[in-house]
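Hi R.,

As promised on Friday, here is the backbone we talked about, encoded as structure tokens. Could you run it through your design pipeline when you get a chance and send me back a sequence?
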């Protein structure tokens, strides 16, 4: 190119660039490099370890080879002889026309391209059926599935919005999650169904199922939908009606949850702490005895004791099995006296947690709750759980968790003022008292403050990340401790 024509080339290039930016879709086919490189990257993902695909492809290829050899031997090696003769003449003819340094690489590249093209079309056909929306590659779905099913076995104990918030974050780290929830609710839609039909309250179970479902956003909206009108329907949640109907079809709530989990493609399982028809009662500092979960918070008194009527309900066997097989046990977050402690009042569950040797942690609430924990500190939350889990044989408090997650950052002044009007305040962190209670402290920021509504919640993703990091450290400490004990014995 001459120097005089160089400016013309620059102007032409600028014009082409302007045209392409104006009509990107029209000329997108001229620049397939990015798409092609992405496709190649997707293909390399099939070579990732643990996908359980490569071994079966190799086994299939070996099967084809053995089948061919078996057929050839059975027919006296005649097919192999004729095949080799044909290949000899065919390859000789090709190399006579085209030199081998050209024909060899050409055939090699053509063969690889045909393999990739055929496999790509086959996988596209499968993907179009399994994932018609096309929002995810099949290999990505398989890799994610394998990763989640290799995750730790986590048992989360609680109820209400706190537990569902936690589950929403945990399901990105493991599919081996068991949520154990209380069935003492007697208010709202759950309470009406309990009184009118006689089913166990499905409210907390509904929240957890929606949180663990794959299509969480849509299902949460559907399950949380409340009918605004209709004789007998107004105020009812669709999810509660769904679980009630499924209980009638399946026979009991446990089977209904299992069937619903399959319908909703839930990652993990949700289990009630007990299948007994139990009711909460509480003794207040002023001497009153309050019956019913919804009445306890409305009484606006200081709770000094809480229990079940009838007492000592049997635990669900699957819940006990999940605790025994767990790698990690998380208690909370949630309403202390009406969501967290009711699960621990099932003595078999408390015994199973107390005897577990895996990492155990409690997620303390960020704000106090009127009628339950007004004026409570972090240590007060811990003491309440210890009191509720008294060992009936030794009359001693049992330590059900080794560490506690405490919120570091204080909410904004606007949020504090807003919550103070409702009788709520930030839970005070009394470090020295917590240390005296023998708990390790995970002091971090796990708060999500909605700037529009001013609502304060745990951030599901941040909380799950913090909990999994602490679990990894606890596992390492346990491994180092076991190694040290072996050295001492030796």
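Update: got your reply. Pasting your designed sequence below so it's all in one thread:
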């Amino acid at each position: 190119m001459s120097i005089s024509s160089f400016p013309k080339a620059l102007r032409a290039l600028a014009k082409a660039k302007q045209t392409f930016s104006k009509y990107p879709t029209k000329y997108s086919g001229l620049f397939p490099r990015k798409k092609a490189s992405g496709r190649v990257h997707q293909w390399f993902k099939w070579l990732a370890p643990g996908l359980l695909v490569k071994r079966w492809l190799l086994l299939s290829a070996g099967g084809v080879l053995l089948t061919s050899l078996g057929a050839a031997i059975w027919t006296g090696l005649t097919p192999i002889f004729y095949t080799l003769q044909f290949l000899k003449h065919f390859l000789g003819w090709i190399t006579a026309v085209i030199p081998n340094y050209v024909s060899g690489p050409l055939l090699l590249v053509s063969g690889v391209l045909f393999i990739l093209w055929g496999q790509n079309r086959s996988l596209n056909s499968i993907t179009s059926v399994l994932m018609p929306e096309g929002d995810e590659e099949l290999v990505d779905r398989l890799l994610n599935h394998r990763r989640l099913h290799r995750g730790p076995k986590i048992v989360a104990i609680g109820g209400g919005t706190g537990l569902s918030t936690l589950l929403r974050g945990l399901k990105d780290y493991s599919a081996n999650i068991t949520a154990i929830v209380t069935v003492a609710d007697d208010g709202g839609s759950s309470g009406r169904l309990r009184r009118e039909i006689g089913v166990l309250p499905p409210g907390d179970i509904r929240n957890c199922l929606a949180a663990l479902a794959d299509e969480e956003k849509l299902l949460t909206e559907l399950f949380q939908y409340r009918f605004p009108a209709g004789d007998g329907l107004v105020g009812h949640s669709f999810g509660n009606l769904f679980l009630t109907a499924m209980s009638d079809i399946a026979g009991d709530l446990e089977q209904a949850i299992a069937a619903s989990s399959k319908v909703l493609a839930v990652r993990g399982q949700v289990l009630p702490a007990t299948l007994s028809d139990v009711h909460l009662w509480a003794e207040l500092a002023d001497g009153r005895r309050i019956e019913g979960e919804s009445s306890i918070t409305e009484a606006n008194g200081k709770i000094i004791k809480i229990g079940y009527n009838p007492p000592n309900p049997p635990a669900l066997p699957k819940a006990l099995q999940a605790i025994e097989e767990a790698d990690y046990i998380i208690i909370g977050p949630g309403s202390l006296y009406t969501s967290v402690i009711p699960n621990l009042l099932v003595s078999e569950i408390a015994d199973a947690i107390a005897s577990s040797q895996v990492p155990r942690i409690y997620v303390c609430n960020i704000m106090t709750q009127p009628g339950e924990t007004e004026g409570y500190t972090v240590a007060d939350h811990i003491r309440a759980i210890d009191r509720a889990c008294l060992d009936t044989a030794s009359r001693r408090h049992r330590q059900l968790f080794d560490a506690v997650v405490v919120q570091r950052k204080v909410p904004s002044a606007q949020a504090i003022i807003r919550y103070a009007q409702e009788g709520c305040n930030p839970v005070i962190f009394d470090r020295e008292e917590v240390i005296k209670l023998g708990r390790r402290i995970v002091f971090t920021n796990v708060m999500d403050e909605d700037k529009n509504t001013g609502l304060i919640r745990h951030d599901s993703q941040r909380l799950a990340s913090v909990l999994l990091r602490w679990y990894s450290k606890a596992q390492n400490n346990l491994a180092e401790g076991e190694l040290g004990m072996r050295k001492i014995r030796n």
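One thing I noticed while checking it: Residues 100-130 form the longest helix (31 residues).

Thanks again,
M.
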